[in-house]
């Protein structure tokens, strides 16, 4: 829900509207504007807090990052395939080596899967997601 939608929705709960609003009187207009501004500020604040939580890395969704940036190759016939035994030997090198190679690139593997905007933690989460089915075998 966008901030705009939130403020529009909130207008319906404006206590002022319990009686039929008469926006032609100055008093009505002022009350109405104050309420709208207050609620818009609250909605903006809520949106801001939500963004901060995501930027802190609390909400990294490794599977979504994998699907968006890595599945094209690792589920699409290029490079070691998700869930295949190709990973058994690679995993022996240790998770840290896999992270480093995913971040810096190796052979046909582009750095960060070709998406420079991914943070180290996001790439690592995608690696975790990629090798999980092999580890669980
Ligand atoms: C353009 C295709 C392509 C994309 C996109 C891609 N990979 Fe790869 N990946 C490869 C290939 C090819 C290899 C094998 C490289 C080699 O060992 O020579 C590989 C290897 C790897 C390895 C093993 C490295 C090692 O040390 O053995 C990891 C981990 C990995 N990719 C993770 C990812 C992650 C995470 C993403 C998404 C952020 C991703 N890859 C996106 C092609 C791709």
Give a written overview of the molecule.
The chain is an all-alpha fold. The protein folds into two domains: 3-55, no CATH class; 62-135, Cytochrome Bc1 Complex, Chain D, domain 2. It is built from seven helices and no strands. α1 packs antiparallel against α2 (26-55), α3 packs across α7 and α6 crosses α7 (120-135). The protein starts with a helix and ends with a helix. Bound molecules: heme C.
- CATH fold label of the largest domain: Cytochrome Bc1 Complex, Chain D, domain 2
Tally the structural domains.
2
At CATH level 2, the architecture of the largest domain is Orthogonal Bundle
**Average pLDDT over all residues:** 82
Q: Structural class of the helix and strand makeup? A: mainly alpha
Could you describe the largest sheet, including whether it forms a barrel?
A: none
Could you tell me the number of beta strands? 0
- Distance between the terminal alpha carbons, to the nearest Å? 40 Å
By DSSP (H or I, 4+ residues per run), the number of helices equals 7
CATH superfamily of the largest domain: Cytochrome c-like domain
Regions with little confidence, pLDDT below 50 for 5+ residues: none
Associated small molecules? heme C
CATH class of the largest domain: Mainly Alpha
Give, in order, the helices and strands.
Answer: HHHHHHH
**Helix content class:** 55-70%
Computed over alpha carbons, the radius of gyration is 25 Å
Name the beta content range. under 5%
Shape type: rod-shaped
Supply the key terms.
mainly alpha; Cytochrome Bc1 Complex, Chain D, domain 2; binds heme C; 137 residues
């Amino acid at each position: 829900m966008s901030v705009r939608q939130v403020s529009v929705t909130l207008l319906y709960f404006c206590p002022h509207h319990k009686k039929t609003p008469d926006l032609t009187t100055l008093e009505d207009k002022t009350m109405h504007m104050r309420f709208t501004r207050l609620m818009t500020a609250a909605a903006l604040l809520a949106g801001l807090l939500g963004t901060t939580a995501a930027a802190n890395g609390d909400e990294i969704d490794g599977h979504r990052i994998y699907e968006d940036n890595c599945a094209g190759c690792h589920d699409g016939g290029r490079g070691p395939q998700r869930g295949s035994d190709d990973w058994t030997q690679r995993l022996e090198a240790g998770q840290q080596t896999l992270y480093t190679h995913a971040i810096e690139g190796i052979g046909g593997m582009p750095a960060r899967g070709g998406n420079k905007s991914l943070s180290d933690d996001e790439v690592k989460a995608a690696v975790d997601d990629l090798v999980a089915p092999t580890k669980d075998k």
